[in-house]
Amino acid sequence: MPATDLNLLAINIATLSVLFFSANLLVVRADKNHTYFPLALSFIGIAIVICQTSLKTLAPALQLSTLTLALPALLLIAPCFWLYVKGLTHNAPWRFEKADARHLVLPGLGLLISLITFLLPAEIHYNLLGKGDMAILEQTPVLFRNFIYGLLITTFVLVLGWIAQSAFYLIKIIKRLQHYRNQLKQVFASTETKEIRWLSGLLLFVGVAWAFAAINLLLDNLFIASEFTQDIFQFVLLIKVCFVATWGLRQKPGFEELFSTESVDFEHQASLAVDNENSQVKQSENVSSEKYKRSALTAKMAESIAQKIENAMTSEQLYLDANLSLPKLAKHIHTSPNYISQTLNETLATHFFDYVNHKRIVAAQKLLLESELTVLDIAMQVGFNSKSAFYSAFKKHTQLTPSQFKQQSK
């Protein structure tokens, strides 16, 4: 076997090993959290699509069967990954619902075509898929031949549709993440560990990979063919799969710690988290007026809650808790999380994240001027989880870096 083929085989086997091993771990975890199951299905779909290189050498008898299933597997990858992202960003334990079934329409159509293909006579099945030879259709009745042609055209349209499908879900995921990160700030004072930034990196990586494939395709057709295109593609795919597997196994749903919090009224909390996949990010004042339209909170009650919040932060220094969240504050001052959110949004014209971090920055300014502690020590002491989060919040609230603030104050 040529060295190039051996490289392709080795990389393909490594990629398949990571996919199946990770899918197995995700299925085990799915017993407790259904969010992981769609990612496992997405991994299995990728494995079915790319396994031809290994099966051709190691198990030729299975190659035709998996090739027949490649179409539904291809169409399954994007919607399953979308459902995984939806589960990660959901405000309650995610479960597959009837409304989610619409995402499986295209994979279902692909599966129907695969089942019909399996029922074709073995000789026709082998010539069409194994050899790519349609000459055998000339020996079949006209009606049957036209049916096969229709099947092939539908398959071609679905393959083209996969490109549109991938772009559609890519846009949905970007919008979902944007909205989810905005909602985190309504509930948590520290969000950097919950923002799922690796997904943004993955989306960028996918875009670069697509651009790389397009450039190579252009070079192959217009200039000079590259013998290493497949090697590079398989290697990039292996890196991408390892990246997703590593982070996918580590990542927990952003609102998971609220799922078992007895004090949280999820009927109210749903207005704070990502509950509607079609919701869009709007101007804050429009959201506020619509969100609290039916609220029973009066101006007098809001003033009282605002005073309780201020006391908790100023007198009791609750902001020093690095894991402070809206439900924790609500439990501390014995008030509904929804009323606290409404008070912050409407009465104090801010949201939970900015309000708490402002208190932390005020405390940090005092320490910067009165102590010799390092910036990292100060950041941790006032409630931040990382130096980068502290710098970002400090710059936002003061328009200066900590060192610039210290110099200016002197």
TrEMBL record:
Residue ranges of domain HTH araC/xylS-type in the record: 303-408
SUPFAM superfamilies linked to this entry: Homeodomain-like (SSF46689)
Bilayer-crossing regions: 6-28, 35-55, 61-84, 104-126, 146-171, 198-219, 231-249
One function term, GO molecular function aspect: sequence-specific DNA binding
Gene3D superfamilies per record: Homeodomain-like (1.10.10.60)
Record key words, sorted: DNA-binding, Membrane, Transcription, Transcription regulation, Transmembrane, Transmembrane helix
Keyword Transcription regulation: yes
Claim: Membrane is one of the keywords in the record: yes
Protein's name in the database: HTH araC/xylS-type domain-containing protein
Organism: Pseudoalteromonas phenolica
Lineage of producing organism: Bacteria, Pseudomonadati, Pseudomonadota, Gammaproteobacteria, Alteromonadales
